[in-house]
Amino acid sequence: MVAKKVPVEVMGAGVLNPALAPSQCLRAIVEAYTEYKIVAEQEKTNRREIAAWEKATVANIQAQRDALIKYLKLSFDERAKNFSFLFEKVDQAIADGNPNQLALAINSITEIAKSSPFKDIADSSFVQAALDDPDHEWTI
Q1: What is the pLDDT confidence band of residue 55, given thresholds at 50, 70 and 90?
Q2: Which residues of 76-113 are buried (b: 16+ CB within 10 A; e: fewer)?
Q3: Backbone angles phi, psi at 126, to 5 degrees
Q4: HSE-up (13 A, CA, CB side) for residue 93
Q5: Counting beta carbons within 10 angstroms of the beta carbon of residue 71, is it exposed (0 to 12), middle (13 to 18) or buried (19 or more)?
Q6: What contacts 108, CB < 8 A, 6 or more positions away?
Q7: Other CB atoms within 10 Å distance of the CB of residue 51
Q8: I need a surface site. Which of 31, 69, 105, 112 has the fewest CB within 10 A?
Q9: Alpha-carbon distance 44 to 4, whole Å?
Q10: How far apart, in Å, are the Cα atoms of 78 and each of 1, 21, 85, 139?
Q11: Which of 90, 129, 134 is nearest to 109 (CA)?
C-alpha cells in the first residue's frame, strides 16, 4: 500500500493574527478533509478494481484447473481401457497359442506405455479444444 503525502503547513510558527487565525484554521481543516475524502474515494475505487481482478483471476484459474482435471480423467480412463483390452488380447493369445497375436498385443502395450498422457498438456489451447469437442476421440 502506498501512502499519499499530504502537505501540512504550520501556520504562523507561533505568531497568530487574531483576525485571520480562525478562518485560516477552518480553511486548512476543510482543505485537509476534502483531500482526505478524495484520496479515500480513490483508494476505495482501487480496492474494488483489485477485488474484481482477483475474482476474475480466481475464476480463470479454477476453470483451467477443472479443464486439466477433466482432461487427465478422460486420458487416464481411456488409457486404462486400452491396457485392459490389450491384456485381454494377451491372455487370449496365450490361451489360443497364437504367438503373432501375442507379439502384436505386447508391442501395442509397450507403445502405449512409452507415450505420456502429459505430452499435449503443455499446450492448454489443445486441451481446451479437445474438451470442448464432443466428437474428440481420446487416443493414447
Answers
A1: very high
A2: eeebeebeeebeebbeebeeeeeeeebeebeebbeeee
A3: -65, -45
A4: 15
A5: buried
A6: 86
A7: 10
A8: 69
A9: 14
A10: 50, 84, 11, 7
A11: 90
C-alpha cell of residue 64: 483451467
Mean pLDDT across the chain, nearest whole number? Answer: 79
What's the pLDDT at 115? 77
pLDDT of residue 12 exceeding 80, the answer is no
Q: Which three cell numbers stand for residue 70?
A: 477433466
Determine the residue type at 54: E
Alpha-carbon gap, residue 73 to 69, rounded angstroms: 6
Q: How far apart are CA 65 and CA 71, in angstroms?
A: 10
* CB-based contact 121:127 (threshold 8 Å): yes
What would the grid cell of residue 23 be?
Answer: 478562518
Residue 62 is placed in which grid cell? 479454477
Written as nine digits, the cell of 92 is 487370449
**Each residue of 89-122: pLDDT tens digit?**
999 988 998 889 988 988 888 888 777 766 665 5
Rg for the chain (alpha carbons), in Å? Answer: 35
Which amino acid would we find at residue 79?
A: R
